[in-house]
Amino acid sequence: xxxxxxxxxxxxxxxxxxxxxxxxxxxxxxxxxxxxxxxxxxxxxxxxxxxxxxxxxxxxxxxxxxxxxxxxxxxxxxxxxxxxxxxxxxxxxxxxxxxxxxxxxxxxxxxxxxxxxxxxxxxxxxxxxxxxxxxxxxxxxxxxxxxxxxxxxxxxxxxxxxxxxxxxxxxxxxxxxxxxxxxxxxxxxxxxxxxxxxxxxxxxxxxxxxxxxxxxxxxxxxxxxxxxxxxxxxxxxxxxxxxxxxxxxxxxxxxxxxxxxxxxxxxxxxxxxxxxxxxxxxxxxxxxxxxxxxxxxxxxxxxxxxxxxxxxxxxxxxxxxxxxxxxxxxxxxxxxxxxxxxxxxxxxxxxxxxxxxxxxxxx
Length: 363
Description:
The strands form two sheets. A six-stranded parallel β-sheet has the order 3-2-1-4-5-6, sandwiched between helices. Strands 7-9-8 form a three-stranded antiparallel β-sheet. By secondary structure, it is of the alpha/beta class. Helix content is 24%, strand content 14%. It is globular, with a radius of gyration of 21 Å.
């Protein structure tokens, strides 16, 4: 069984006892015995002054792109790093005063657009030159540390859903991402990564023996995390990604879609590790709320062979080819209105432009 950086750190806190500490965390910060990280740190003698919560809040109560406020009260300050403006995404220097160290411990899911590691990088930039130590308690990349998919992020497309020039499915852990960010962003930062024990790059989350705690409201299980690098692309289209259903990202659709046509076309492509089942659903919230949508349910039949980003692009391409009503959204997405959301997610415009230009999937 894998032992996380949190458990290793708790056993070796001698040099940090009494240290005035900030903690970037949410409810995925737990020990093997399911004790929350903030409780375990205090028990081990850490002077926990302030906790910083990411998008969705400390307990993952808020939906995507919803400002987080009105969180529970504790005997430490609880500060949201996701408010109603871009300025809330990183801490001001005033709120860092008096801290000797800041610890990061959140379970990521291995996709560039998932915002928790971007929150970490924003915080690292804010700490640069401050003399405050930054400690990352490493956790597994749940979809593995070998397979990498999708284009690199173009520098001019940096946003809260992409800050570092890595692929969409990046294969990195939080600790590795922090080391990369320090180098690429040229940060003046005292960075320490507390490594895991027992993790191997070829592991998927079920191999780790760790409990799955949904890191956000629409990430209920490991298979959703595996599918997410491709299905999240539909946040940039007028097609439901299944939010407002019991299986977000596993089913996509819209009122104008014909399920059997979509499923038949996608199954004929021979995409590895997946079968597409024609399906109808009615989202309770988000896009097409209260309307019956035709679409497909993605069944992963081989986790090792499945390529989520390729699958997402194939679905988007099929939707545009079959339905003139299918379109790419233009508006504010994660505080950015400069580019279409689909382009921000892809890290540039090329995939959207090729889809609209009728390029074959192999391209």
